[in-house]
Amino acid sequence: MSETHSVTADELRSFLERFEGLEAEKRDISEQQKELMAELKGRGYDAKRFKEGIRLRKMKPEARAEFEAVVDMYKAAAGLA
User: For the whole model, what pTM was predicted?
Assistant: First the structure.
């Protein structure tokens, strides 16, 4: 194998190992999130509403305001307001 192929193979192997490490971290984080949700439920909180709160917090303020305005309009149309 030429020196170029060796360097390329080493670099590729390094990328693979880094990717595998990130995959392991993702699994760990996912497990921690599951444990947190179990604790949340165990304390009597509504997991579905909690996740909705997370989703809303991720939205930009303008997008959230627009979303809430549309929901309010639908609620009014349905006689729920």
Answer: 0.72
